[in-house]
Amino acid sequence: MKTLKIALAGLFLCYVTLTGAQEKKRFKIHTIAFYNLENLFDTINDPTKFDEASPIMELNTNRAAAYKKKVANMARVISEIGLKDTNNAPAVIGVSEVENREVLEDVVNDTLLRDKDYGIIHYHSPDARGIDVALLYQKKLFTPISTSSHELKIYDDQTRKRVYTRDQLLVSGALDGDLIHLIVNHWPSRSGGEARSRPKRVAAAKLTKHLVDSLQIIDPYAKIFIMGDLNDDPTNESVKKVLNTERNKEKVGLKGIYNPYENYFKDGIGTTAYRDAWSLFDQILLTKPLLEKDYSSFRFYKAGIFNENFLTQKTGQFKGYPFRSWSYSGFTDGFSDHFPVYVYVVKEVE
To answer: Can you give the pTM of this predicted structure?
Structure first.
C-alpha cells in the first residue's frame, strides 16, 4: 500500500516516500487552473455586442490606461498560480468573462507570461453580454488534439424567450504525453434570485454531464477535468445531484466525479463574496481515473484556492473580499471579484 507524502523540490520535481521503505522517487508536477477574469473587455465598441455596457466602456476617461493595467493584473495572477510549488505558471488554465481572443492575446503577450508561450483556444458564444470562456495552454506542455464549443439552449420560465448564455468549451489533448479532457464552463448567473434562476444552471449541468458521458462511452477511463464559474456551490442541485459529485475520493465510482472543493465549502471557504457571505462558485471537478494510485501517468495530487494577500481587499466595506477590478467609481486597480482555483497533477519520472 503506497502512502503519498510529497515534498516539492525544484523545477517540476517532488519526492514520494513509500510505506515501509525510504525510497525516493522523482515526479513531474503541473498546475491546471481556472480563473474568472471579471469583465476583461477591450476599449473598442463592437456593434454586434452589448459591450457598451461593460465597465471599461462606461469610463469617461483613461480607458486605455485602465485596460493596460487590467491586462497586466490578469497576467500577474496567472503567472503566480502554482508558482511556489511548481516553479511554473499553470500548464493549462481555463478562463471566463473575456470579450474576445484579442484581449487574451494581450494577456499572454504581457512580459510576465510571454516566455511561457501560451496558446489560446477560444470560440465566440451567443452570450448577451458578449463574454466567453477560453483555454490557455503552454505549448511546450500541452498539445490540443480536438476542440469544440457546445451551445446551451435555455429559456426564461415566464417569458419563454431564449436566454443567450455562454457555450461550454471541450478540449482534448496531451499533457506531457497523457491524454486529458477539459470542459470549461461559465454557467448562468443567479440574476432574478437563486431559486428562479436555478433551472438554468441545472440545464447547464445536464449539458456538462452529456459531454462527460459522451467521453466515457468512448473511454470509461477518460481523464476529465470539469472547471468553471458554476454560479452554484458544491452542494447545490446542479453540482451535487445532476453531476452526482462525491466529496470523498474513496466513494467515487468508475464513471463518477470527485469534487475536492466540497470540503472547502463545508469549512466556510469560498472564491467570491456577496453581502458578507462566501460562495464557492469556482470549482475544478475530476473523474475517477485521475484518483488512481498508479503514478505512471498523471494523477490528482491536491486542489487549492489561490487567495494570496495581494488579491484581497484591504480596507473599506468589502475588506477581506476578493479585490475586484470594477466598482461604482470605475476601475479600482484591482484584479477580479473571484479567486482562481487550481489542482496539481503528478506523474512519476524514471
So the answer is: 0.94
